[in-house]
Amino acid sequence: MNRKHILPLIFILITSWLFLNFRLLEVPPGINGDEATIGYNAALVSGTGYDQNNRFLPLFVAIDQTDWKQPITFYATTLAFKLFGPSYFLLREVSVIFILVSGLLIFLLSKEILNAKAAFLSLIIFLTIPAVLIQSHLALENIAPIPFVTLWLWMLARYRKSLKDKYLYLSALFLGIGLFTYPGMRLIVPVFTALTAFFIYYLNRKKSLPAILKFSLVVLIFPVFLFSIKNQYPGAILAHNRPQKIQTYQEFLLPYISSFDPSFLFIQGDSTPYHSTGRQGVFLLSTLPLFALGILSISKRKDPIQVFILLAFLLTPLLYGFAASIHRGSRLLALLPTYTIITTIGFLFLLNIKNRVHRVILLLIILAVIANYTDFVRDYWYEYPNRVKGDFGRPFQLVFARAEQLVKETKLQPFIQSDFRVQNTLAVDFFEQVHFPKGLEKWPLEKGLPESGIVIVNYSLDMSLLPAERIKDTNFGILISK
Amino acid sequence: MRFRFILFVSIILLAVILRFYQLDKVPPGLIIDEASEGYNAFSLLQTGKDRYGETLPIMFRSFGSFQAPLYTYLSMIPVYLFGNSIFSIHFVSAISGVLLVIITLILFVISNEKKKLILALITGLLLVISPWAQFFSRIGTEASLGVTLFALGFLFLYLSLKNIWFFPAAGFILGLSTHAYYSERLISVLFLGGFILIFKKRLLLSKKFLLAGLIIFFLTQIPHLMIVNSGAFTRRMNQVDYFNDQFFQNYGGPLTSVPFGKGLFVTREFLSQYSAYFSPKNLFFDADPQGARSMPDLSVFYSWMIIPFVFGLRYLLINRFAPLNKMIFLLIILSPIPASLTRDPFSTIRTLVFLWGLTIIAGFGLSDLWQVFKNFKLKTVILIGLIVGSLFQLDTAYFVLLKYERSENYDFSHIRLFEQIEKMNDKKIVVDSSRELGIGVRLAYLKKYDPKTLQEVLGDQIKGQYYSNFEFDEPYALDNIEVRPIYWKKDVCNDLLLVGDLLAISEGQAKEHKLTYLFDIKNTAGDVMLKAYQTNPDPKCDINSI
Question: Would you give the DSSP letter of residue A471?
């Protein structure tokens, strides 16, 4: 990489890191069940090697045998906890790191396909995608496919230039690992594999068979491995992850076509409050013209790798009919790298037309993007948390952090109200693991207060006469008995 | 030649592996009929009588119904050799499954079909991997023995066209098959009649053998005739048919008020049921709706088999005058009839003979396609791909999904419970049986409970009415374990360990009766199915006042 690019790149990444970390623990307002599953088990595995079901270094983890967490995010979190100790901040920080690494990889991909200027543009476009900010604040596995899809594309772009096998192998390797990033990738990887086979055929023509075989065999290792352990992890590999039975072709095509519904992609976003503010799309509406121009430019220039990227974008959700997934942006984050590149190409297309009208249009689009993104960020940071308070778990982190602080100050023994774990028990377990790794003794409140100690409680009005501290804006409290 | 021999042996070996691999674990338990067969086989070995004390029954009574006898009699061998295990009950079925493959291979090897070795290999291979054959070869059902005996009879009939000496043997085997399963009682008679009609010219050339075969067939039917008026002979049919007036009144709709309405209703029902067996949707895409009769996500055949099946039909039509093909046509037309007389839609277990016939047709089609494609490497790769893909699908559906999702169809949780309570001899245990009839007989079989003691209890109720009394109330008090519904008023006043599912003993009941939770039993998917509690009799509890 050219030295003159390194400093601006580092600057953008550090600025983005600070930006993504702003209000990381406040937005969204509480931990959700999936985050707690990953967090609690990662905390346990980082400590003892065993998960909550007493399995040693499990490949997949689940709380109820139905929703299984994939190993890439889980072990990234486990590693982070092992290195720095478990914390709520670190749980979400892993997602921020995933985003920054993805940004860097998109920079490299864009540089490979286009040029350095475009690479910076791609990085900025990627980082300003609303879904990126939203997912960076969630300790979930949805974003894990992004770096692997980008690496697959980057290696293919390098292969196109050199036709060296090592890039083919690496491309296959990253695509194969992608299977373990997110369950939806099980429907995407076969499509990308077939698409790559066609691309290799296009590049090599009659001599393509060995290259196609090399690529396919390396990719194949991963599904074969996945299914070879189906007896050990039947719930994670089969059970709810089996393709839905399709009764009609409409049923199959609806999720595919609805994935490109502009109102979903650019205006409303994911249909759940966890993955969308409901007021912005998966992508910024103001980038739509650039994206459309990108498609136009690609279809005009017909550069094979660019056409390949466009096809990858269009075919990503081809098999989503098997998952009956409609308007679920969080399941389509594998689209982000290709969207970013296409939009960058659209921007360059406009930039390269040297006349005043086009310059004005470009300027207007840039202003629109800034206004659009600012509006989104303002809403996301300050209004969205209030709207979705009920959808996320209660802010347990506040009461546990305060209790830990009090214990350190007073040296009193910590207790927890015996029926505190009524809802979101895993979140309570996680925060207990983070703040009180030795565990909390249960205290039945009908016994009154312990002789000496502090008790984490669900705060109620009749506690106002007791030596109690209520955590601001929550219904948690801490009873103190000295 | 040697290579082909290796291929034949490999197919048989694959059949042995698929039919016997983890036979004691998958399916993960015993259905009620299997448990009944198992205990009766054990009881016969020990005493020469079944669990009701009947000496060498013509049909085996089981909870108010009757089972064809051959499977139970044959199961005495594995029960003697391997003990009272799940494996022993599945054994006869698994052996039948392997024999069916061997019989099919022989049928084509001796046939006059073109490229008969390829045809034999392909049809044998399809039979080995077919989901229906795999599924029914691994549960202790009389149907799998029935289809194998019928196939053997079919083979002998075909051989009799070449050498009439085989006709009496065919008569005997077909007659025997009527004692293996209900469907064969009708199919064998119809098929034998149809066969004689089609090939009468050839058969009448050797009237002596024809007559001998028919006499032998008739002799094998004598046991049926002995009980024909007892009610037992038609008991099962009466339970599942649509001929009775009550069923007509309930489901006849407007036909109930039309002259000859019942006749029209029966005809309509029959045609509707009969045509369902030819539905591609049922055969190639949807699984049998009865969970205990199918595996998850897999139909009777793999979906891809519809293509060779269509080509097979074409082949059969073109070569319709070949004797074997005539027999297959006859088989396909007649074999769904018994199942079509019952009200259950698309009941696979009653049509195994039909499914065997369809597999043969798919075999015709695939071997026909094999001849069409000239590139040997390409067609070999395609065939291997199809077989490997199918085996992968079968492995997933049968050895993983069925094991984890359908374990309760085989009452896995009670079998686990028996293992858990086996050593609790000092405790009085009550296992609730409100929703599952077969718990007692399962336990009796696995526990090797003394048949004489059980015969005394069960036999008393039906003395002299073995084939005619259909009432059943089978209490199982096996040493310290009683299998019956929980009687709350009485049981909580005794020092007992109560075991039941989540409906039998709810959280509320446990609290109300001050029961102490002891342990629970989970199914293969990890869901709690049974809970065990210790009673804490109140000192004031006056047992005498109850």
Answer: P
The mean pLDDT value for B183-204 works out to 96
Decide if A239 and B396 are in contact by the 8 Å CB cutoff.
no
Contact, B63 vs B474, CB < 8 A? Answer: yes
- Judge whether A294 and A287 are in contact, CB under 8 Å: no
- What number of residues does chain A have? 482
Is it the case that residue A72 has pLDDT exceeding 50? Answer: yes
Nearest to B510 by CA among B494, B483, B492, B525: B492
CA atoms within 13 A on the CB side of A473: 9
Burial (CB < 10 A; 0-12, 13-18, 19+), residue A291, is: buried
- The C-alpha angle B400, B402, B405, rounded to 5 degrees, equals 100
Write A195-201 long-range contacts (CB < 8 A, 24+): A195/A308, A195/A311, A195/A312, A195/A315, A196/A152, A196/A156, A196/A171, A196/A172, A199/A156, A199/A160, A199/A304, A199/A308, A200/A168
For residue A238, list chain B residues with Cβ-Cβ distance below 8 A: 396, 400-401, 404
The burial class, CB within 10 Å (0-12 / 13-18 / 19+), for B395 is middle
Does residue B262 contact residue B252 with C-beta atoms inside 8 Å?
yes
CA B406 to chain A, closest CA, distance in angstroms equals 12
Mean pLDDT of A114-130: 97
Q: Which residues of A touch B (CB under 8 A)?
A: 65, 227, 230-231, 234-235, 238-239, 242
Name the phi and psi angles at A441, rounded to 5: -80, 140
Listed in sequence order, the residues at least 6 apart from A126 whose beta carbon sits closer than 8 Å to its beta carbon are A102, A103, A106, A132, A336, A337, A340
Q: Please say whether the beta carbons of B412 and B29 come within 8 A.
A: yes
**Closest by Cβ to A65, choosing from B392, B401, B525:** B525
Q: Nearest-CA distance from A192 to chain B in Å?
A: 21
Cα Rg, chain B, nearest whole Å: 26
Cα distance from B352 to chain A (closest Cα, Å)?
A: 26
Which among B392, B401, B526 has the least Cβ separation from residue A238?
B401
What is this model's ipTM?
0.71
* Identity of the residue numbered A338: T
Closest chain B residue to A53, measured at CA? B526
Average pLDDT over residues A188-203: 97
Burial tier of B544 (Cβ tally within 10 Å: 0-12, 13-18, 19+): exposed
When pLDDT is averaged across residues B137-158 and rounded to a whole number, the result is 97
Look up the pTM and report it: 0.84
SS3 B228: coil
Instruction: Please state, in angstroms and rounded to a whole number, the distance separating the CA atoms of residues B473 and B490.
Output: 20
∠A252-A254-A258 over CA atoms, to 5°?
140
Instruction: Please give the Cα distance from B282 to B269 (Å, whole number).
Output: 17
Residue corresponding to tokens 């979930």: A140
Label residue A253 exposed, middle or buried (CB < 10 Å: 0-12, 13-18, 19+). middle
Estimate to the nearest angstrom the gap between the alpha carbon of B276 and the chain centroid: 20
Look up residue A1 and give its amino acid.
M
Interchain proximity A227–B404, CB inside 8 Å: no
Helix and strand numbers (H, E) in chain A are: 20, 7
Q: Which of A55, A220, A231, A247 to mutate to test the interface with B (most CBs of B within 10 A)?
A: A231
How much is the mean pLDDT over chain B? 93
What is residue B240's predicted lDDT score, i.e. its pLDDT?
84
Do the bridges between strand B497-501 and strand B429-431 make them parallel or antiparallel, or are there none, so unpaired? parallel
Instruction: Answer whether B333's CB lies under 8 Å from B326's CB.
Output: no
Say if the Cβ atoms of B400 and A238 lie within 8 Å. yes
Give the three-state DSSP class for A475.
Answer: coil
SS3 A392: coil
Gap between the Cα atoms of B284 and B306, Å rounded: 7
Nearest-CA residue of chain B relative to A227? B396
